[in-house]
């Protein structure tokens, strides 16, 4: 992992759980400890949605990787930007590819000056129209 991380990362659920088993796990956790990696409330809701019951919900959201990251709340300006990006994608006939959570996470990262760390090709599509930096988590550890 050698790229510049000055701007920090907003973690998408697609990459969240893979960090713990990633070959560069120590470097990623170092970024979390230095508060250069955060998570959005929307990602927390997605994680909570995958819980089987209340105990599982508490365990997932209370895991060290999740509970140690700063949480970025979605603001009205981010909702507006997500709508704008969806419109830009609609102009290209691609508005049904990224999910609403993907659009909101990307807008949150863009307006906060963060990169989305992901494993979801739809973030690359969003970046094509916004020009914002995105970072795909390399599963082989060649980041």
UniProtKB/TrEMBL annotation:
Its cofactor is Mg(2+). InterPro entries: PIN-like_dom_sf, PIN_dom, Type_II_TA_system_RNase, VapC_family. One of its GO terms (molecular function) is RNA nuclease activity. Gene3D superfamilies: 5'-nuclease (3.40.50.1010). Residues 9-128 form the PIN domain. Its EC number is 3.1.-.-. This is Ribonuclease VapC. Transmembrane segments: none annotated. Toxic component of a toxin-antitoxin (TA) system. An RNase. SUPFAM superfamilies: PIN domain-like. Keywords: Hydrolase, Magnesium, Metal-binding, Nuclease, Toxin, Toxin-antitoxin system. Mg(2+) binds at residues 12, 102. The keyword Lipoprotein does not apply. Pfam families: PIN. Belongs to the PINc/VapC protein family. The keyword Magnesium applies.
């Amino acid at each position: 992992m050698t790229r510049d991380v000055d701007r920090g990362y907003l973690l998408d659920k697609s990459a969240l759980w893979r960090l713990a088993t990633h070959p560069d796990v120590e470097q990623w956790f170092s970024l979390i400890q230095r508060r250069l990696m955060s998570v959005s409330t929307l990602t927390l809701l997605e994680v909570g949605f995958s819980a089987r019951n209340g105990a599982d919900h508490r365990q997932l959201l209370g895991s060290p990787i999740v509970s140690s990251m700063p949480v970025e709340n979605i603001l009205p300006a981010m909702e507006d930007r997500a709508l704008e990006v969806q419109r830009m994608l609609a102009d290209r006939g691609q508005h049904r590819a990224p999910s609403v959570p993907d659009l909101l996470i990307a807008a949150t990262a863009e307006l906060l000056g963060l990169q989305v760390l992901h494993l979801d090709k739809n973030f690359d599509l969003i970046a094509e129209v916004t020009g914002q930096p995105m970072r795909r988590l390399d599963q082989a550890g060649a980041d």
